[in-house]
């Protein structure tokens, strides 16, 4: 335990995590995914990597990834707003990187909204590179997406 903060553990998500995942999704995003879409990502298969972070037995964050060719694509990541800046996002990203490396993948990719300053700071902190822009990618407000990537080996050791 660091500075009185209980440790975070990361495990594969299961459909029973849906209620907590929905709560965190709705607290985190102005355009949340539907319950149906979230549930669809909560079962690991050959392509999906669903992870949750737990603290004191409660889910406090999640990450949803897809294995695509030699890349891990992160579709969604969030930490409960009540416990941000406590290493939850980092623990999820690091575990996803370890699992991606174990599958023989080399790189992680994702998109982030141009105005998501916290998200962009988080990814820069972990060594992501901005490699391009998808103009007007987000349907709700026409905002651009910034495309980011990072070597999995760097992330796993970060
Ligand atoms: C992005 C997100 C997942 C980060 O989760 P987190 O658990 O708060 O992140 P961590 O505690 O692991 O942060 C690690 C580092 O990232 C950077 N960082 C994270 N949040 C930051 C912020 N709001 N402002 C500046 N830097 C930030 C810092 O360098 C931080 O280290 P520090 O706290 O020692 O300075 C979280 O902010 C979140 O859920 N945001 C809403 C959902 C979202 O935007 N997801 C990304 C969509 S692509």
Topology of this protein?
Layout (H helix, E strand, L loop, with lengths): L8 E4 L5 H11 L6 H7 L6 E8 L2 E11 L2 E9 L8 H15 L4 E7 L3 H9 L3 E6 L10 E7 H6 L1
The structure holds coenzyme A.
Overall description:
- This protein has five helices and seven strands, in the order E-H-H-E-E-E-H-E-H-E-E-H.
- With 158 residues, the protein is an alpha+beta fold.
- It has one domain: Aminopeptidase.
- A seven-stranded mixed beta sheet has the order 1-2-3-4-5-7-6.
- The longest helix has 15 residues, at 88-102.
- The protein starts with 8 loop residues before the first strand and ends with a helix.
- The model has no long low-confidence stretch (mean pLDDT 95).
- It binds coenzyme A.
- Coenzyme A (COA) is lined by residues 28, 77-79, 84-90, 110, 112, 116, 118-119, 121-122, 125.
